[in-house]
């Protein structure tokens, strides 16, 4: 019973999806709420602040657990490693508020769609349902499934038959009203955040709260100048943050506001056409597409066809043809029926309809699939509003460091309490002084100082036309060690140039027709295929479409005309466009061609086909083009030349883009039958026509950039949708794969009835024809290859199909391949994202650079995604380059490394600054003394404030180093750096503190003030001391005079200057310190000022700084001690701690190795004499001869761990918001 109660209390939301959440049910208790209210009043609002930072504590304090069905509050928790909480109220909706009577009979469904969750969510006879709103999406409680389910979409379980017959005539007006109430408005609303709300969020940050407490305490003690400076700086920082957030909010609001103002026409069952606002659309509505139109929802086309611009989704502003969902009577879900090609029927929200083609049944119609934030555009906007969290060690380490400093402050607090209570100081003064020491260890300038490095880097990136919507990722770029590139449009030019055609006849390849010769392409089936098999459209007299299609069509020298020309003389059917021979075309017996039906290209199917009619003929033709390997499968074997693989390889090895074409005659009784043809019927038993060869040139920037990354030991990987052999050739031509390296082709096959899944390893031959080059192949599997060289002399290449098989059936083998996998071809958009994620599981910091066409998912998945497209789809990419080549990649990595090193330097400096002051203040507390206000002021403003704001402005070093900077604060060199500097500071300050007491001229000023003042020969008469003789000597806060403070102040101040210099290391990640002119000038000025104050004998300076005069030799001793400390610290930092060779030697001697998964695999494989395998086949799950079993599928206990690894990504917020 208790077990069932626990199950009822908890459920999963979006199970198996990236945004999976745990949801827990709670019921509010009024007694608990009253207690929380009283406690909040008694703590002066501190409890409310705590509840604001920890919403789950608020729920636990004021509510009791209950079954989700009875809950009025739900607590949501992310299933990643960070387990962030959200609190949401359960909203109760009542259908009795509708203007028409609703049946209360439980047997009668509310909506005609029997798949709909609405029927299961509404309780009868109460006519109520419960719902929650999470990240803009509404979920209703399903009483049958006993969990929250998403609404605002049609269920995927619908078959093609269901969609046509359940929704084909439209919804009744009553059902529309029910759906509007339950699903909410079809609107993507991004409110412009009010300034007061943004300001409140910023101010209530835990660190700002601590800062406010610190500054209040300092102001109460008269430390006004520095407090005011910090307040001004914090206000500027908050104002800039609020302004930036407000601008982003306004920009996003403008991006979506037009979406909610579209007038649409729908078909209402029994009433006909009705015009309404797009925000009133519901899933299941029938949308009529009039012509040019911006889609306000996701819809599936059921009648007619249309051409849309999907630039918002794909980043490519090219027309895409959409075809209607077929009329089939099977019960298979409609998406499964169309396999991966279901997108050809779907019109996505935010895309533009630019042309419609009605069918004989009537206008173009579509069924609304998804509304609001469930749509494609809504999902894009949500990804910006709620970015996918990413883990970066710096922020979690920095948080731990701050907690440590705060703990040190607490130790100081109790130390001060003990000292002052021992001396009998009043409780008020004791508490004040103890709190002052508590605040010394955590510098209040920390947030502003750590942000400056990122701000400087962002400004430098903007100068190079690289724009960033997620500044915290700049630091992550400094850790990138693997860079993925798309090929077409990224490594190679966008456009393709026609090179030639290779026609076939009698099962043999014929003479190549070279377009460079200037001769027109001769008429024949190949020419007919090139003129008709494409997705080009005629828009306002201009031919528009895919660049490949455009180049292919232009090569035929035929022209397009719109359908208002007189087609009667051709005896052709009605069509949007007519294709005719142009003036420069070769002589043709055919006067015109019209395309009757089109099956659009799909990257997953790798082909497209059309049904066309030639003028004067009473039968039809099927023309098809696509990837040669795919096309050969659909052609009759006797029509495919025997030397087809060799011919294909001949061109792909030269880096050409190769397209195959095919044809068949189609004899039908009527033209109307064409529209009902299935793709399977059309794309079968074809005749192979030949190959179209296109040239895809490398961009001139590609080779030098890849060389620079290779020299920096940053792995480069190609992920493309193109042919595998073409990708290998491009990789070799660009020197992504060095000429002397071997390529091993990995081909994996799905399991069949009697055969397990297989993976075959084949060595790709070296195609160099120069003397001596053809013998460069080496036996990679031979153990004679030096272990140190094995990792760099072979590269794996595979297709998307093989990758999918490896992922499912050779899961334990996949990491071994990925550590040396360089070419991934024929990859679908989903596979690209999956591959990036698999690389991340191996602990690579992955960058992805693409033109946005099919890379959006991978760009968002990577640690640093760089889009070379300015389309709306790239908005969710962290970085966008206005320069459409990969030169932006090394610039971004350099700036990331510089920003990361700057962040470490600033953090180390501020830690040391806090520790220097903490040690000095603690020593003075021992005898109830304190540094003077102006002594603190010089250190805090003249040095620390100015240094912190300029230390990070040093530019990135122009050359990428062959190694990365440290990625975490809690690493031995960094910890040792801080620890040793603290030790040096501690030794020097304690020695000075004790040694000054041994001097013959020393006296305890506050005890013997009258004697001391009478014997001063300089300007002692102007020095005022206050005394409080109550048995024990007590220091009034205004009395700061002592030889100890006069001695310690120059030591601590010069120490602050020297550590700033020591921690501002230049090469190899930043330019030398002297190139940062402002910072260098400030350091020299601060040092000069300190030395001047130390050696000056001006009365006004001594009075203002609250110093006591000392002999010159003592001052020289102080300066000597500071110089000695600097020399020791600089030597230790530069010669030991920053000595990379020394640390590598130590690691080697003591057997320390990187814990990164990819390093572990590299080490194992280097020691394995049988790796890499060549010219062999392995089987999955074969106990006798097989080597690899998919542990992820075999062992259920491993799944949660893998799931945890997938979620091992954290928030990009500043680390202090983790509180």
UniProtKB/TrEMBL annotation:
Encoding gene, per UniProt annotation: ATP13A5
Annotated InterPro entries: ATPase_P-typ_cation-transptr_N, ATPase_P-typ_cyto_dom_N, ATPase_P-typ_P_site, ATPase_P-typ_TM_dom_sf, ATPase_P-typ_transduc_dom_A_sf, ATPase_P-type_domA, HAD-like_sf, HAD_sf
Gene Ontology molecular functions: ATP binding; ATP hydrolysis activity; ATPase-coupled monoatomic cation transmembrane transporter activity; metal ion binding; P-type ion transporter activity; polyamine transmembrane transporter activity
Record family assignment: Belongs to the cation transport ATPase (P-type) (TC 3.A.3) family. Type V subfamily.
Catalysed conversion reaction: ATP + H2O = ADP + phosphate + H(+)
Key words of the record: ATP-binding, Glycoprotein, Magnesium, Membrane, Metal-binding, Nucleotide-binding, Translocase, Transmembrane, Transmembrane helix
All residue ranges annotated as the P5B-type ATPase N-terminal domain in the record: 17-142
Cation-transporting P-type ATPase N-terminal domain span: 168-213
Domain of life assignment: Eukaryota
GO biological process: intracellular calcium ion homeostasis
Provenance organism: Rhinolophus ferrumequinum (Greater horseshoe bat)
Residue stretches spanning the membrane: 34-53, 226-245, 398-422, 434-455, 906-928, 974-996, 1076-1096, 1116-1137
Membrane topology of the entry: Multi-pass membrane protein
Domain P-type ATPase A: start-end pairs: 261-384
UniProt xrefs under SUPFAM superfamilies: Calcium ATPase, transduction domain A (SSF81653), Calcium ATPase, transmembrane domain M (SSF81665), HAD-like (SSF56784), Metal cation-transporting ATPase, ATP-binding domain N (SSF81660)
GO cellular component, one term: late endosome membrane
PROSITE patterns: ATPASE_E1_E2
Protein EC: 7.2.2.-
Listed name of the protein: Cation-transporting ATPase
UniProt-annotated location(s): Membrane
Alphabetized Pfam families for the sequence: Cation_ATPase (PF13246), Cation_ATPase_N (PF00690), E1-E2_ATPase (PF00122), P5-ATPase (PF12409)
